[in-house]
Amino acid sequence: MALSVPESEAQRFADYLYSKEQQGLLQYETGRS
Length: 33
Prior knowledge:
The protein is mostly helical. The chain is elongated and about 40 Å long. Helices cover 79% and strands 0% of the residues. The termini are far apart. The chain has one helix at 7-32.
């Protein structure tokens, strides 16, 4: 996955994606039970 993200923004962008992923997983888990 090649995205044009400035080096200074890369870590913050990764944290953002990670948090969104975790939220999605949590919603998936709670929705399943």
